[in-house]
Design goal:
Blueprint (H helix, E strand, L loop, with lengths): L2 H6 L6 E5 L6 E6 L3 H20 L1 H18 L1 H12 L4 H17 L5 E6 L2 E9 L2 E5 L5 H14 L3 E5 L5 H12 L7 E3 L4 H9 L5 E5 L2 H10 L6 E5 L4 E5 L5 H13 L9 E7 L3 H14 L18 H16 L3 E4 L15 E4 L6 H4 L6 E7 L2 H8 L4 E2 L1 E5 L3 H8 L6 E4 L14 E2 L2 E2 L4 H6 L2 E7 L1
Parallel strand pairs: 5-6, 5-8, 6-7, 8-9, 10-11, 10-16, 11-14, 13-14, 16-17
Antiparallel strand pairs: 1-2, 3-4, 4-20, 9-19, 12-13, 15-18
Helix pairs in contact: 3-5, 4-5, 4-7, 5-6, 8-9, 10-11
Organism: Microbacterium keratanolyticum
Pfam families: Aldedh
Family: Belongs to the aldehyde dehydrogenase family.
């Protein structure tokens, strides 16, 4: 057990076993914390917040950069924990990515905005801290998304209480341990608990803001829980991102980018490509190209850096993936690649799967698979493809693929999604705002807009 893991794992009689996603062996024990401990953490955060806010942007940013350096220095150990818990290939890369995003949050300028000035009269819009921010995180990118929540909140002078996913608590506890080395007591606290603790955090009367990344169903429950305290919300919820491949597209030119837009992190990405509509003129070549890449993609333990795909993170998600593929097969869909567990690799590995000859209305199209499966759907009319892409309740991301960028942008303008990529899918940038529409949530993260989302507005007139 590495030193960072040892610092956050507790004795077996005081904790809950956490399993390696690939081998299902116990890697450590997460503390079982209670609502009472949550209440104490919120009280400590509330007490620490005024002094933290009083430090000012420059000093808070200096400390965040210092923490980013420490995350980079600890990336091997932190990455090992991520790969054990989540299963991904490249846990160390996620750790370095988190440090990069932390520096970005520290470096972004946010100045008061002059609204009006007339002689001696001047009106300015200022952004001031909210108070205590609650972060409720997912299991697919536990450290990276943890930093997406924490960094702008701290930068804006708030304090943070974070509850990690029950599947990946140790990596987040380790991340927060690094933060705590450099911050005053109470500025950030991680609470490892069950759904009761998460519900209590969302409903806590002293929480000013809730940031949540996860499923639409859980997001709706958080909205209900937050009603009494009127906490502000940023919700990045489920996605069933559609891609549209236009006629005339060079299949070989886009197949790699399209495949990895769907299968990055073994398909366990909110904004991964989840369904792709392909024009009939290039349909069969595209199915063949994607199937060839699925068959060739190296899959196995995330600790072996020659692999590109790892396991499905947990048994519940593995069951969803299996059910959706089996349902498509029973409907008569063509399994062009994969379509079965890779039991020789471990209990939660599922072969990368390409499903052809399937239509809207099938579960594999209408439901978010969040795993290594991509349905490929034939269309003949672009207007019909746009209608079908917009036909579901999710609206996180989408993409358009084709040789004419201007034509692709015209299609993109008609898609109902928070971000539409052209000839790519899923890329995010710390300076570019990101958020969903419809049932994929609301509020923006990243960039200046992400900082503003962690603040209250105050107009000062003189």
């Amino acid at each position: 057990m590495n030193a960072l893991l040892s610092s956050v794992s507790v004795d077996a009689d005081r904790g809950r076993p956490i399993l390696d996603a690939a081998t299902r062996e116990v890697i450590g024990h997460a503390p079982i914390q209670t609502v009472e401990e949550l209440n104490a953490a919120v009280a400590a955060a509330q007490a620490a917040q005024p002094a933290w806010a009083a430090l000012g942007h420059a000093e808070r940013s200096r400390l965040l950069r210092l923490i980013a350096d420490d995350i980079d220095a600890s990336a091997v150990e932190l990455g090992e924990i991520i790969t054990h818990e989540q299963g991904k290939v490249g846990g160390e890369g996620e750790a370095h990515g988190a440090a990069h995003w932390l520096r970005a949050a520290a470096d972004i300028a946010l100045e008061p905005q002059v609204l009006a000035q007339d002689g001696d009269s001047r009106s300015e819009l200022h952004y001031v801290p909210l108070g205590v921010v609650a972060s409720i995180g997912p299991w697919n990118f536990p450290v990276m998304i943890g930093v997406w929540h924490i960094a702008p909140a701290l930068r804006m002078g708030n304090t943070v209480v974070i509850k990690p996913s029950e599947y990946t608590p140790l990596s987040v506890l380790a991340l927060v341990e690094i933060f705590r080395r450099h911050l005053p007591e109470g500025v950030i606290t991680a609470i490892s608990g069950d759904r009761e603790v998460g519900a209590a955090l969302a409903a806590h009367p002293d929480i000013a803001k809730i940031v949540f990344t996860g499923s639409t169903a859980t997001g709706r429950r958080i909205v209900e829980s937050s009603a009494n305290n009127l906490a502000r919300l940023t919700l990045e919820l489920g996605g069933n991102d559609a891609g549209i491949v236009l006629p005339g597209t060079d299949v070989d030119a886009i197949a790699d980018k399209l495949f990895w837009g769907a299968f990055m992190n073994t398909g366990q990405v909110c904004a991964a490509l989840k369904r792709v509509y392909v024009h009939e003129s290039v349909y069969e070549p595209m199915v063949a190209a994607l199937a060839a890449r699925a068959d060739a993609a190296p899959m196995g333990s995330g600790h072996d850096k020659t692999n590109r795909l790892g396991p499905v993170q947990n048994p519940d998600q593995f069951a969803i993936v299996s059910r959706l593929v089996d349902d498509a097969r029973e409907r008569g869909a063509r399994i062009a690649a994969g379509g079965e567990p890779a039991a020789d690799l471990g209990p939660l590995f599922y072969r990368p799967t390409i499903i052809a000859d399937v239509e809207d209305g099938a579960a594999i199209v209408d439901e978010e698979q969040f795993g290594p499966v991509l349905p490929v759907i034939k269309y003949s009319d672009v207007d019909d493809a746009v209608r079908r892409a917009n036909g579901l309740e999710q609206g996180l991301g989408a993409s358009v693929w084709g040789p004419d960028a201007d034509a692709a942008v015209e299609v993109a303008a008609r898609l109902e999604a928070g971000t539409v990529w052209i000839n790519q899918h899923g890329g995010v940038d710390p300076s570019i705002p990101f958020g969903g529409t419809k049932a994929s949530g609301y509020g923006l993260e990243f960039g200046v807009e992400g900082l503003k989302a962690m603040a209250a507005t105050k107009v000062i007139r003189r």
